[in-house]
Task: structure prediction
Amino acid sequence: MTERLLIRALKGGKDTKIVTLNGKGITKMPSALSKLPGLKTLDLQNNQIRKVCPEISTLTQLTALNLGNNLLEEIPEEMKYLTSLKKLHLFGNKICKFAPGVCGGLQHLILLNLNNNRLTWIPQEVSRLKSLVILSINHNQLASIPKELCFLENLSELQLSYNRLLSLPEEIKFLKKLQKLVLIRNNIEVLPEGLCDLQNLRILDIAGNIIQILPSGFQNLKLREFYCEGNPLFLMKPVNAIQQEDAWSLQEITSRFIMNELEGKSPFIMQAIQRHPQVRNIISQRRKCAICGKYFLTIWLECVEFVPPPKNWKISRNLKLVPLRILICSYKCFNKRGLNLFGIAQV
Result:
């Protein structure tokens, strides 16, 4: 049956646009594919293919390739020659690595599906997939993602569920077109503050992580759907705690003075700071007090503010209040807090 289908395709020659050999028990890719230079779509899913044949590099007009549910162990170098490729399905293989340079030729790739593989890392060169709109890497073994992935300026959907992620890079703020982010069942403890810069984000699913508190400004996202079940989110259950005295180091006192003078545009401080790059580097880590609005460096109180989720969000059933991370510069400011803001204490 497979041979008949292939012979029929070969008879079409340059006019053959689609070849479908889905679930035919194929163990090797047919090298005769090189005789179909006009091929647009190649579907070889649900077979037992272990390697991509070198002849695939001749299919420069191919726009869709489906090798899902096979036995591939890497994304091979030959794919970099598929310069017209827009959709690449590699789900359900045994892929654990990218061949060097493979991303360089896939400049028109819009969709990449790597679900259900064995990836433990993503190469930095993923940033070369400039046209990528949808990236799905569910059910792999990723412990992290490179910051370079966050430079895919056209990315609209990112799926990273069922991995081993501990965190997301702060650079995620550069995914300005991201509309859907799915992070179900990872080991994420904290979401980066940069996430709150994603004003096009509409769907966020963080279910099944170990997140306790969400970044400040999270409630201003223009989400339509937000799911967070299975996370140990802070609950509004006040307990009494002993309040300590503020004790600042000399560096903290000096840094606060400099930072607040810079805010006031002191010409003397602004001129002096230009000659001290070390100082500029230190104060670049500054934080702003949510109560008084002044800057501070390392001495701060981590607090939680409970706010109701926006009414237009579709949310997890039991989510009544959203716990937001708030930083305060001193106990003096802490004592001026509102009724919904609490210090975080270990009990």
Remarks:
- The chain has five helices and 18 strands.
- The chain has a mean pLDDT of 88.
- The longest strand covers residues 301-307.
